[in-house]
Task: structure prediction
Amino acid sequence: EVQLLESGGGSVQAGGSLRLSCATSGYSLSNYCMAWFRQAPGNEREGVAAIDSDGSTNYGASVKGRFTISLDIAKSTLYLRMDKLKPEDTAMYYCVADCTFAEEALVPSDVYYWGQGTQVTVSS
Result:
């Protein structure tokens, strides 16, 4: 059974930083594709960043240059480093596994494994 457990969310002022973590279990990291999505109240889920075992990364236009996705295989943990946070980054952030390729992974799909989410709130 694949389990994804997010942590690291919280409240921060605009311009600040946070690092989200997603501890994985039951998901093989020998050939992986993982991503972060977010959803704000009243909005649809939005792809934030993705990474795959080919070494490719992909970022949503609104976070490119501010967010960095990485994977520590030894720790089976996915990270999202978020810098220069803005109030519009406020959302529930979800970890996702089993996408196909990073370049195609920023569209939500029910075939992915989803975590329960961690809340990020950015105040102005």
Q: What stands out?
A: The mean pLDDT is 96.
